[in-house]
Amino acid sequence: MDKDIDKTEEDPSKKIVEFMKEGAYKPMSFKELVHVFGVKRDRREKFKRLIKRLVSDGTLIEIRGGRYGLPSKMNLITGELICHPDGFGFVRPDEGGTDVFIAPRRLAGAMHGDTVAARVEGYKEGGKREGRIIRVIKRAHKVITGRIEKEREFSSVIPSDERILDKIVIPPKDSKGAPDGVIVAVEITRWPSRDTVAAGRVIEILGDPEDPDVEADVILKKYGLPNRFPAHVMEEVKEIPARVLEEDIRGRVDLRDRTVVTIDGETARDFDDAVSIESTHHGYRLWVSIADVSRYVREGGAIDAEAYARSTSVYFPDRCVPMLPEALSNGICSLNPHEERLTLTAEMDFDASGHMTKKRFYESVIKSAERMTYTNVKKLLEGADDALAQRYSRILPDLKTMEELAQKLTRRRMEAGGIDFDLPEPQIILDIEGNIEDIVRSERNVAHRLIEEFMLSANRAAAEEFTRRNLPFLYRVHGEPDRESIDDFVEFIAGFGLQLKGAQGPKAFQEVLKAAEGRPEEKLINHVLLRSMKQAIYSEENIGHFGLAFEDYTHFTSPIRRYPDLVVHRLLKLLIHNRYSADERQRMEAVLPEIAGHTSGRERKAMEAEREIVDLKKAQFMKDKVGETYEGFISGVTSFGVFVELKEYFVEGLVHVSTLLDDYYIFDGKRHNLIGENTKRKFGLGDGISVRIEGVDVERRRIELVLAEEFGRKAGRKGRGRGR
After folding, report:
1. Which spans in 277-395 are helix H?
2. Distance CA 508, CA 417 (A)
3. How far apart are CA 400 and CA 215, in angstroms?
4. Per-residue pLDDT for 5 more than 70?
5. What class does CATH assign to 12-71?
């Protein structure tokens, strides 16, 4: 059968997959595939590369004897391996569905983050799948950071990431003279397997693990976050003008005479969205103007390639790892006050109840009237500062109109069932030298909510435009939680006397959060519900956004710091200029899935890095407070102890059950209490508690607490508080 793969107009990889799915009755060798597809001798090398690419991305699996097959046909699943510091792991399937548990002895040399093929071999209690790793498809880590330990004949590196379970052996010739105990970056030269450990060579000595800057560098390297731009990218930056040129303004809608403002945090330096409003006979007209990054970042250029590789800016308390070079992110693309800037504008009309009645998109030029902060906008709207009101008297009426519209948009969104998680984030306050001065609970005030609603409206409007036209697009989607997650959440909240009512859509979850407001368990319920939800991702397929209760949604409003927004801008420009041709449609159908997968992955890495740096800063801040006593309240209860949030600082630590010396403590999972077996003493959510800082493990980002009353008890009584 001649299926000459080079002559087909279809994607050849799709043709191979279709055959393996429908036509192949067994795993096939390369020779058999060559015969089936009639590949000519001079094309075989190209065909071999194609097969290898399908194997490298996990579409095909190579098994013993050099035969190839689809994972699904061989009872295999492919996905990312997520390891746990205790030695086991889970495979998160690419195709969705429940994770597969992998016992330590069945990891077969696979490491945390690797893309693997696993075989499901049984089921645990509750129907959860378990299996073993059959093959590593793609390694996640080429370079690993960790602490070097000198041994008699060689050295080894203990990875900084606890989820990388095995140490890496370093031969003497490859240690680069690194002294014992320092943090190093290691290139892996031999991957671990069932029978051998990993080996590597030191490529960089980072320094003392106690140095705060070294720890930050470790996190950057751990998540593959570059801290400088390559020379060829900076060369391309030099070609970009530092100011808006007259020729760039031609053909754009001129909004320079409109009162346009930016509203951001006090420390923000890149301003990529600006807003303007007016009341109309029928309601409101809102302008959301976004920095026209696509005007300066040429698709396929060096800056674009680097931005795609990074996919997102990453924000640490003391620095930013930007997606774009500073000349763009803080310069020509930033909507700085009183400077002309090129923008892409979403102009939206709303009726008196906040329902969007009309929208249009166009290229524009603006001149921001003011750089406002959330704090000042809040004061203005609350009438709390007469001097501030006088200073901004020109824009105060517009701000009040914005607040009016935002409240109506919030009301409509809540009525539709949008889930609004109330999870405060830590805000790390730095002094002028960059040292941590305080850690406080971040505020989410009326100004934050105002901007959130306007950005949600603009994002939604852009997505609706493409859905209506049935054109390929990059959506921001959030799938419904799976049945198992819902059942677990229902069981969890039942312990607090709460239940999901009616159809289990977003509105039912919203009502649970509303019922928990003000209760000691409010924060915990928010956390558990968030963990029960699937993660929002980018996708070319529109499945809607469950959490927001939107049928259509995208990211359009932050192209300075998110690559998907830049892609959406380019797609909108194709519409604006009537260039979304059949060829463009075909091109987008081919490239958007890859863009969606890559940017979703980079977003996850950035979030993990940001979370870890905050945990690191908390540990560093508390290190010199060992021995001090603080008031706090219980924020979480587990079988191994209670988590306590300090009142003075927005910091959490663990009182381990083994430090409770007055009784044996039993965990009541339904009521989330620890109860003394003899004394009946109870530790429950929200209970006030006085604790002493017992220890801080900066390397592991852990803060150890003991009850203040336990300090000084006789050592002979230790060990009684073992949990059951």
Report:
1. 302-310, 326, 374-382, 386-391
2. 8
3. 45
4. no
5. mainly alpha
